[in-house]
Design brief:
By secondary structure, the chain is an alpha/beta fold. The chain is built from four helices and six strands, in the order E-H-E-H-E-H-E-H-E-E.
């Protein structure tokens, strides 16, 4: 059994219009929500083993909060920036098989679309949401459309 956590970055700051989209930081709410969600997952006993993040600043900052809470390193994946569901699931399918619980951190609409493609569940996916999906498989390469089941959707509110 594999568990895939699909996470959307925390709330970003739109205050500086001169910044490239890729370089937008988290706003004050995002800086509160990201560590709170990370702590919540730890407190719930989740056994996260691997984190892969979009290289966008807001996603990477969110990922760093999860990494600190779980004492893990973050693997940067440029393909997760503004990724489609297909790309997100391709990144998941390439995860190391020794890992049973992994988190991918990226952006909408791709993350919501990936949940829908993997599980058939169409969900609202606000910032800092985490969808916990399970796949009855021994290898991440077996992850295909419709092969997963959503166990929980956690939101910061």
């Amino acid at each position: 059994m594999k568990t895939l956590l699909l996470a959307r970055h925390a709330k970003s700051d739109w205050g500086d219009q001169a910044l490239r989209d890729h370089d937008r930081p988290l706003n004050a709410r995002g800086m509160r929500d990201a560590p709170a969600m990370a702590t919540r997952l730890v407190d719930e006993g989740l056994r996260l083993q691997h984190i892969v993040s979009s290289t966008a600043l807001r996603a990477r900052t969110t990922a760093d909060e999860y990494a600190a809470a779980f004492r893990l390193e973050v693997a940067d994946e440029p393909a997760l920036y503004a990724a489609s569901a297909r790309t997100i699931l391709s990144v998941a399918a390439a995860l190391p098989d020794a890992v049973d619980v992994a988190m991918l951190i990226g952006h909408n609409p791709g993350m919501a679309d990936a949940v829908a493609e993997l599980t058939g569940e169409h969900v609202e996916f606000p910032t800092c949401a985490v969808a916990e999906c399970t796949v009855d498989a021994e290898s991440w390469a077996e992850l295909i459309e419709g092969s997963g089941r959503m166990v929980a959707l956690r939101t910061p509110r």
